[in-house]
Amino acid sequence: MRMNDFIQEHIKSVSGTVLKLIQEGLFSNVTVIINDHEFKSNSLLLASSSDYFRALFSFQQKSVEEPRLEIKCDYVSHVGLSHVMLFINSIGQIHDSIPVEDYQDVYIASSFLQVHYLQKLMSLRLGGTL
C-alpha cells in the first residue's frame, strides 16, 4: 500500500467512525433544527466545516453553550440541510449519495451555511461539469 493510499484509507476510516459516533449520540453536543427537523452534530465539526457556524460560535458565546440551534431561513429546506449535515458529520466523505433532484436544495443550504466545498461541488453538478 502506498503512503497516499494509506492516508486516504485513514481519512475514510476516521470520518466513518466520526459519523457513526454522532449518529449514536456520542460526542454530539449540538442539535441543529429547521422546520421541526433535528440534526445532531458536534460544534467542532460544524465550526471547522462552515463559516456560518464558526462565526456564530465565535461571536455569540451563548451559541457554544446552547445545545439546540434553530435555523430560521425560508429558502433553506430540511432536505438540503440534511445533506449538508451528513456532509459535515462525515467530514466530507458522503456526497455521492445526493440525488440529482436535491442538488438545488443542497446548493442553497450549503451557500447559506457557507460550507464552501459542498457548495462548489453542487455548483459543478448543477452546471453539468461533474
Question: Care to describe what's here?
Answer:
- The protein is 58% helix and 10% strand.
- With 130 residues, it is mainly alpha-helical.
- It has a single domain (3-126), classed as Potassium Channel Kv1.1, Chain A.
- The chain is globular, with a radius of gyration of 15 Å.
Structure summary:
The protein is mostly helical. The protein has helices at residues 3-23, 43-49, 51-59, 61-65, 78-89, 103-112, 116-126; strands at residues 30-34, 37-41, 68-70.
Percent of residues in helical segments?
Answer: 55-70%
So what's the CATH class? Alpha Beta
Beta fraction of the residues? 5-15%
Number of strands: 3
Uncertain spans? none
Q: What layout of secondary structure does this protein have?
A:
Blueprint: H1 3-23, E1 30-34, E2 37-41, H2 43-49, H3 51-59, H4 61-65, E3 68-70, H5 78-89, H6 103-112, H7 116-126
Parallel strand pairs: 1-3
Antiparallel strand pairs: 1-2
Core attributes:
single chain, 130 residues, mainly alpha, Potassium Channel Kv1.1, Chain A, 7 helices, 10% strand, globular, repeat
